[in-house]
């Protein structure tokens, strides 16, 4: 029986390839709304980040989410991510 492939995604904080299930997905939908997708199933453009505060700080400082989605990111998105990661 063939071994199932493990989907890998790159964290935009540390640029490391990791198992998709180890990362948090941030999504921009067609309306341009940015949200945190904990299920990994929401439609739209996704960016992935490690479940570490260090990576989140790098992403926020270098404005990597802004670059990934070509749009301004509100502070509440970072606040939501920070609270999700600190749990």
Largest sheet: 3 strands, antiparallel
Mean pLDDT figure:
91
> Helical proportion?
25-40%
Shape: globular
User: What is the C-alpha radius of gyration, as a whole number of Å?
Assistant: 13 Å
Q: Report the β-strand fraction as a percent range.
A: 25-35%
How would you write the strand order of the largest sheet? Answer: 4-3-5
CA distance, first residue to last residue: 38 Å
As residue ranges, the low-confidence spans are: none
Number of helices: 3
Order of helices and strands: EEEEEHHH
Q: Report the structural category.
A: alpha+beta
Number of strands: 5
Explained architecture:
With 87 residues, the chain is of the alpha+beta class. It has three helices and five strands; from the N terminus they run E-E-E-E-E-H-H-H. The protein has helices at residues 53-61, 64-69, 75-86; strands at 8-10, 17-19, 23-28, 34-37, 45-50. The strands form two sheets. A three-stranded antiparallel sheet has the order 4-3-5. It is globular and about 45 Å long. The chain starts with 7 loop residues before the first strand and ends with a helix. The relative contact order is 0.21. The model has no long low-confidence stretch (mean pLDDT 91).
Search tags:
87 residues; alpha+beta; three-stranded antiparallel β-sheet; two-stranded antiparallel ribbon; 25% strand
In short:
The chain has 87 residues and is α+β, with helices and mostly antiparallel strands.
